[in-house]
């Protein structure tokens, strides 16, 4: 029976239902909807790229001043970005903001060269280049390069033992 409305919907359009209100009272469904919207917006505000040369994360932090943002390296492979400001007044009243983002760096990143840059339009970029892989060779022939004389033998004598 539950399938009947779905089958008939193409022929007889039904009004759209708020499926969140089925599972929660109206005020809770509003909170759930806001939380879902915030999660969707967080994904839009962040991008991460990892390629053969580097790790890079870009975060929209335009709501924060540079003094309100910290970037920390923890455990030699984890970067934590935090932004926090106390209550401020805006056009709708008062608001406070706080976020924490953690990124696990790939194992081959050079954490000694980790950088963070803040653009004038409020995008924080965190990047770390990858270390070059050193391949071990089991066998390699070393060519002999001929040069001129390096030392002179004793006073006009040719000594076979001195090479």
Automatic annotation (TrEMBL):
It comes from the Eukaryota. One of its GO terms (molecular function) is unfolded protein binding. Keywords: Stress response. Pfam families: HSP20. The keyword RNA-binding does not apply. The keyword Nucleotidyltransferase does not apply. Residues 37-145 form the SHSP domain. InterPro entries: A-crystallin/Hsp20_dom (IPR002068), Alpha-crystallin/sHSP_animal (IPR001436), HSP20-like_chaperone (IPR008978). One of its GO terms (cellular component) is nucleus. GO terms for biological process: protein refolding; response to heat. Belongs to the small heat shock protein (HSP20) family. This is SHSP domain-containing protein.
């Amino acid at each position: 029976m539950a399938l009947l409305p779905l089958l008939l919907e193409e022929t007889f359009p039904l009004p759209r239902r708020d499926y969140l209100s089925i599972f929660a009272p109206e005020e809770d469904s509003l909170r759930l909807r806001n939380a879902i919207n915030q999660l969707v917006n967080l994904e839009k505000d962040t991008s991460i790229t990892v390629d053969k040369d580097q790790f890079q994360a870009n975060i929209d932090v335009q709501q924060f001043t540079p003094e309100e943002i910290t970037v920390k390296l923890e455990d030699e492979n984890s970067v934590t970005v935090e932004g926090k400001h106390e209550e401020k007044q805006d056009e709708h009243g008062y608001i406070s903001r706080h976020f924490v983002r953690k990124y696990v760096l790939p194992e081959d990143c050079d954490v000694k060269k980790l950088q963070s840059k803040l653009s004038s339009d409020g995008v924080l970029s965190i990047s770390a280049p990858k270390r070059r892989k050193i391949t071990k060779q089991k066998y390699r022939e070393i060519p002999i390069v001929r040069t001129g004389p390096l030392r002179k033998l004793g006073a006009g004598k040719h000594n076979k033992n001195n090479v």
